[in-house]
Amino acid sequence: MSVAGRVKKWDPNRGTGFVCSDEGVDVYVTRESFSGIDLVVGLGVTYDVVTRAAKPEQVATNVTGAGVCTEGSAADAKIALREAMSREGQFDGHVANWNDLLGSGVIEDSRGHGYSVHRSNVQGNGSLVRG
Length: 131
What we know:
This protein is 11% helix and 44% strand. It is mostly beta strands and 131 residues long.
């Protein structure tokens, strides 16, 4: 049975991360779990969950959706994120993390889903305050 959720965390160098179901359950994901190049944090995905004897016990497989980047670059991922945000509209959330030196951080919605944000997407002075 497929599960709906979002990409919560993704490390493109290691090819591993986590997806989070709409119910708030985190599941480990690897690059072998999808047909694409990378995952885009914050975008929606559907996936199956496989339980195995090794750790981590639950792993996402057959990952598909807007969060799977098939065109292969950071620029493509940013474009996909902007398009998804415009389709989904605005949402309420809080700044979970912000690094002013890097000009980037994470906004978390009321369901705990994290969305990467860059200062180029921030109105005003291009900076956010955690909280």
